[in-house]
Amino acid sequence: RAKSAGGNRFELADPEADARVITRHGLTTALPAALERGEFFIEYQPLVHLGDGSVHGAEALVRWLHPQHGVLGPDRFIPLAEHTGLIVPLGRWVLEQSVRQARAWRERYGETTAAGPLRINVNLSPCQLAHPGLVQDTVEILERTGVAPDALCLEVTESALIGADDDLLKPLRRLAEMGVDIALDDFGTGYSNLANLRRLPVSVLKLDRSFTQSMQQFPADPVDLKIVEGIVALAHSLDLAVTVEGVETGAQAEQLRILGCDTAQGWYYARPGPPERLHELALVDATA
Ligand code: C2E
Ligand code: MG
Ligand code: MG
Ligand code: MG
């Protein structure tokens, strides 16, 4: 397609790119109505203790059941929601749904498991972090649902916190003081200064999936082994727990357990799914 003379339009050579742009635009404009119509839903992926395989909670992962395009993953629409600001009400909805789910699990299984408090992990985007209502919204949701703060872990990516000034860290500190856990998501990809970790109010490191993937080869890349070993040692010396994401095989789980990682998530244990899926897993046994 020819570029219109003098216009500031993109040149769209192939029809596929054209379709992507239309879809992107279409998705963006459809987001607010989708939230009102209840087209979003949450899948839960179990968090497993590497020592004994018990389940102590789950991570909430949002999806969009689009009336024309079917189920869309967060990578398709979260960036758009961040761009338009809809991430704030959408994130608040995810948080409330997730905390309600945690309450239901706690009512059924008790508040603690063999591996600590039964909890729900919820992802926060940088926009939510910068939004002044974050602490109050979170407090209100916990009070409204009657759920203790130790049921909640908020995940913030390492890249969102690199170079974060005190204003950005203040709400996280307040939440941590209340007893909400903060996890550093996708850790190891962001080139952050490790000494900087001390300054952050985090209690969990979530090691990025790329490390898990490199544990697939046998023997694993010796440099990666050293790096993971070093991260685990540093994390533990700072009293941080280490969670690994993207565990797809038993070999990976075993390698990461030997390296001292505490908890894991991944398809090897369970794919993200409806909340009832957790009932089939070891939750009951873990509390028994
Ligand atoms: P994340 O927080 O790092 O979540 C882990 C992603 O890895 C999820 O992708 C999960 O489905 C996927 N995963 C889990 N186990 C495995 C495995 O064994 N192998 C592989 N290959 N992948 C695995 P998903 O659900 O597509 O989410 C992608 C990202 O979207 C998340 O990455 C998170 O950053 C973001 N996200 C999801 N839900 C929310 C939300 O409610 N709010 C915000 N702000 N972001 C969200
Ligand atoms: Mg996450
Ligand atoms: Mg992650
Ligand atoms: Mg990730």
TrEMBL record:
It comes from Streptomyces pactum. This is GGDEF domain-containing protein. The chain holds residues 427 to 714 of 714 of the full protein. Residues 24-286 form the EAL domain.
